[in-house]
Amino acid sequence: MNIVFKGARVGFTNWSGGIGVPSGGDSDKEMIWRVWIMRKLSLERTKQTVDMYYSVRNLIPEFFRNRDPFILQEQQVFERVQTIPTPVLLEDYTQLLITRIFNTEEGNFDMNQFVKVLMMVSDLLLRSSCSLGIHLVMDFKNVTMGVIRQVTPSVLKKLQVVITVSRLSMASRNTSRETGSI
Questions:
Q1: 88 has a pLDDT exceeding 50
Q2: Within-domain flag for 182
Q3: Considering Cα of 18, then 29, then 47, then 165, what sign does the dihedral take?
Q4: For 85, phi and psi rounded to 5 degrees?
Q5: What rounded mean pLDDT belongs to the chain?
């Protein structure tokens, strides 16, 4: 197994210098190692996944730029969105990410900032959690029509691209669960 890790390290070093992967220090190295494990130790699939991860960040910048938590706090984003990862992994080594939207009176809610917070938390989990994926649970109890009107076809398409290309492509197996009807 040690030979596999040494070979992967050499492959990652040679590969990461040749593409647009930013050298963000230990955080990005950790993320690449986690993706490699999620992709079942396949260097080629890891390269594709990481390449798509950074490509999507450039394609849809409104979800990925200006992500300073202090600025978002000043804009009172966190007074309308709560996103809490559960500390315990599920049986399939995935993690629940529970999100709640509240205080959404007219003009108080920005869908791009909501998605930005979700992306920030999922990036933190990707870099620091031992999970092999995320199950997103959303509480829409307090959602108003003003929020629903912000869910336009273009927002849905961007979400679909972000989720399928940069997030779900990291899971190399189906992690969905069948649930009984409610």
A1: yes
A2: no
A3: negative
A4: -80, 140
A5: 76
